């Protein structure tokens, strides 16, 4: 059954007819039961909602041995998933997509992902080995490694920890076509920087849109500062590392223009206003004022991380490592502080 807030969103967005199903775990199970009769309950693990455009919801299904899938609801006339078999997903035969409601909802059963094609190969031992030979041809010690999932954003990104025995040795990232181009270009931007560590790229596959980085030991800053007795001295080291990053003469970074920053803010405001209409007017006024201030601010051309947070920093002893430079750019360092 839909929660009251979700029911309000469905009522305000009739342009996505499948919204009432993908946001309701019970409705998802009922819709899938003809295809997956042994599926039990469904637990929502991820939601990405773009008002008027799409809604992607990931689920973990109990029963049938446990199953991970995501359901995507789109407006009529939006590019649809090809109609395919509704059998249990397989890494090699391409099954695992289910079309519901005359194309209003497309369901992908893991490891099938409409935009992360290499995920199916990762789930099959032999195909995975061939793929790793392509990514790191000079590292046979990694070809037969196992992996465990760190983060999965359907149709956006898959991140896994690569294991040799039980020891983590690398981080593998699968990207969409659009995100891979930026991430690949930024791989060498901060090479040789001495003030903080960053994970070296061990290999890549442009064809599969894969990047493999070395594993860095350490504790995530967001965990370190949430301890009952946190070490706030670590923040001084992190601040110094971020300042050095901003001063670094990184090569090949794309500029982040003020008008793009302003447009991003306005887009976020519109989306939040659709979800919380009682705040829409106040939010729009605030964001338009902020966007105006951004446009009047001087343009800066400094190296920035582009997605900086406490979750992107590792602390190991006195050292600091900064992770995930996929969105690094040239712009205003204030963007990394929020």
Note down, in words, how this protein is organized.
With 338 residues, the protein is of the alpha+beta class. The chain has three domains: 4-109; 119-214, Phosphorylase Kinase, domain 1 (2-Layer Sandwich); 219-336, Aminoglycoside 3'-phosphotransferase, Chain: A, domain 2, CATH 3.90.1200.10. The protein has eleven helices and 15 strands. The strands form four sheets. Strands 1-2-3-5-4 form a five-stranded antiparallel β-sheet, with helices on one face. Mean pLDDT is 89; it is low at 81-94. It comes from Eiseniibacteriota bacterium. This is Aminoglycoside phosphotransferase family protein.
The helix tally amounts to 11
Low-confidence stretches: 81-94
Q: Give the DSSP E fraction (strand runs of 2 or more residues).
A: 15-25%
Name of the CATH first level of the largest domain? Alpha Beta
How do the strands line up in the largest sheet?
A: 1-2-3-5-4
The SSE order reads: HHHEEEEEHHHEEEHEEEHHHHEEEE
**Would you identify the CATH H-level superfamily of the largest domain?**
Aminoglycoside phosphotransferase (APH), C-terminal lobe
The count of domains is: 3
How would you describe the shape? globular
CA-based gyration radius: 22 Å
User: Would you give the CATH topology of the largest domain?
Assistant: Aminoglycoside 3'-phosphotransferase, Chain: A, domain 2
Strand tally, please?
15
User: What separation lies between the terminal Cα atoms?
Assistant: 37 Å
> Structural class of the secondary elements?
alpha+beta
Which whole number gives the mean pLDDT?
A: 89
CATH architecture of the largest domain: Alpha-Beta Complex
The main sheet comes to: 5 strands, antiparallel
